[in-house]
Amino acid sequence: MYTTNIGSEFLIWQSQLISKHLIDSGLCDLGCDSPFLENVFTLLVKFTERSTNVYRHSYIEDKFFKRFASWYFALCEHLIGPRFRKKQNQQPRAILHLDFESTRNGMKCTSFLMPHLHGTMIIKPQYMDRFHQIVDGQKNLPLPSGIKDISIKPFEDKGSGLHRWIDYSSKFSRSELMNSNLAKTWELFPNLPSAHSEATLTRH
Questions:
Q1: Residue-wise DSSP of the chain
Q2: What value does the mean pLDDT take over residues 42-55?
């Protein structure tokens, strides 16, 4: 059984991971208290399905991340060029969390309606102009089959930095961990195995 504070541990780890990505992207150093949040964007990915059930189909949620991956690779090619796969350190850093309509912090989800992803994405400064072409609608990336819409917004700091947004976007992931459900509810882009291994949390 997981410890009762597993949700808090996961939230802290996610915050630390985003801070690490900001440092790796050259947007702040180890001593910075106010990272350059103008390079941080929030994403909302909506799908065509109206419902799904992660308990009946343990890995059905995997398809949502695979769909986003198709769009993500198209984004990388637009920003970096056709050889983007050999430049992983230049690719946008993103954390995506699966969520459903009407989920609440600290409450187990029982109605798996309107699946969607909440995301946090970090763009390196040299690619900001090209990225804004997409944000501002000057450049449209085709949506993969099964994705209804992808909304991208600059992160708005309302006084608590990224903490409040991470708390909101990861609420379903943390709820599932607290209920000992190991279904895949979040993903990193680019996929970084070392970061996934760091997410292994102690069970008792």
A1: -B-TTHHHHHHHHHHHHHHHHHHHTTS--TT-SS--GGGEEEEEEEES-SB--TTTSTTTTHHHHHHHHHHHHHHHHHHH-TTGGG-GGGSPEEEEEEE-TT--TTS-----BS-EEEEEEE--GGGHHHHHHHHTTSS-PPPPTTEEEEEEEE----SSTTHHHHHHHTHHHHHHHHTT--S--EEEES--HHHHHHT---B-
A2: 82
Which residue from 131, 164, 150 is spatially nearest to 64, judged by alpha carbons?
150
The pLDDT assigned to 173 comes to 80
pLDDT band at 21 (very low <50, low <70, confident <90, very high): low
State the average pLDDT over residues 151-167: 83
Is residue 201's pLDDT more than 70? no
* C-alpha–C-alpha distance, residues 167 and 57, integer Å: 26
In whole angstroms, what is the distance from residue 63 CA to residue 118 CA?
A: 15
CB 173 within 8 A of CB 97: yes
User: Taking a C-beta distance cutoff of 8 angstroms, is the pair 16, 90 a contact?
Assistant: no
| 173/185 Cα distance (integer angstroms) | 5
Whole-number Å distance between alpha carbons of 139 and 56:
39
Judge contact between 97 and 117, C-beta under 8 A: yes
Residue type, 82: P
